[in-house]
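Section 5.1 Outputs to date
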Amino acid sequence: MLLVIAIGSSNIRIGLYEGRSLWMQTSMRVDTQILPDEYAVKIQSALGLFGCRADEVEGAILSSVMPPLTFGIHQAVERLCHVRPLVVGPGLRTGLPIRINDPAQLGSDLVTQAVAAREMKLGPTVVCSLGTATTFVLMDGQGAVRGASIAPGMKISLESLARHTAQLPWIDLETPPPGAVGKTTVDSMKSGLLLGTACLVEGMTKRMEEELGEDVSLILTGTFAPLIAPLCRRECRTEPDLILRGLRLIYERHREKRGDKPAK
């Protein structure tokens, strides 16, 4: 089995693949104070929750946007599963053409998502990830990354409103507002955060489309994708497991290049 781990700014997503099938997935909170052995225990517990043993893991790969955690989790997986994880980053071939000024500056999460999107062969594509940050990656018809855009995510925006204003509360974003014009404080905040994010997605996708000079497909992924997709007025598809799929694809490509047997 193949263990895939995506370390984000707020959460760590863990998946286990049996061949090309995502056998299990779960997540845990990011905690920079936890030691590698503590993360090993947490990962072991997560695997055990789904009836899997650490000795069944034959390969591992991780991506990370949290450098302080990368080494610790790498060490945790190595100790627990007795495999040396691959780490997405400069030096690891992904097969993804990146046509920006400095390809090494493109975050490993964006690279991994783009690899999965490229495999879908949708033609020109915008991949929008809705998590701690709201990110956009533009890919041309040949599957090459042409650039990206980064904005604060909904959680950051909500925290900023609740922390820096005297009368705006922390609210639940699970249900959409009744309309763009809020009649209560809560509905007004939901309008700004949820519908505002949907407008951001539509507007940035349109501008990227215009700069590319071609129509694009839109993929939404990340924690808040299921909330925003129904609010978008343009066609889009939601791919919640995009980053996990991308990790699997990168691992398979790396192993095939080396001539090793793939993880079962």
